[in-house]
Design brief:
two-stranded antiparallel sheet, about 160 residues, single chain, mainly alpha
């Protein structure tokens, strides 16, 4: 690991930020500044690790690409995948398979749409009620959790074109 990759210090920073947040006299601005610093540190660490992982993957790929036995097996594997795909396409031309495939795709779309709506409802429910749990009709208590991630703005605009 290089000097930009310091997980132990990141853990210490996280603990320090948590402790600052718990202190009675801590100001929100101080907490936000510490959190922002911690986030920027993690972004830097992630970027560094991604570059290092790409270098190692490229070296590993070169080893595979230069091995004749692997290349032979890779070629056979691609041919088998092509045959499998053609067979699948032929089977999907059968009316029963085509109907089931369409139903499956429709159900997956409906499921994704319902999951998106549920996420929106849960977020609003948590905001309005101030709780992060809800009991289902089955009596099971479920916790409302969020998954946040960062996307570079330039990537967002590039994908829209």
């Amino acid at each position: 690991m290089d000097e930009n990759t310091k997980p132990a210090e990141d853990v210490t920073e996280a603990v320090e930020v948590t402790q600052v947040a718990l202190e009675p006299g801590a100001k929100n601005s101080e907490i936000l500044i510490n959190m922002e610093s911690l986030i920027k540190g993690h972004i830097s660490t992630i970027d560094t690790l991604e570059v290092e992982a790409k270098k190692i993957k490229d070296m590993l790929d070169d080893i595979f690409n230069n091995d004749p036995t692997y290349q032979e097996h890779e070629k056979a594997s691609k041919e088998a995948a092509r045959v499998k795909q053609n067979t699948k396409a032929q089977i999907l031309k059968q009316p029963q398979a085509a109907d089931l495939d369409k139903k499956f795709k429709d159900l997956k779309g409906e499921l994704k749409e319902n999951q998106g709506s549920l996420s929106d409802y849960l977020q609003e429910y948590a905001r309005m009620s101030g709780v992060n749990e809800i009991e289902g009709d089955d009596g099971e208590v479920r916790e409302i959790v969020y998954h946040a991630k960062l996307i570079k703005k330039s990537s967002i605009f590039a994908n829209k074109n």
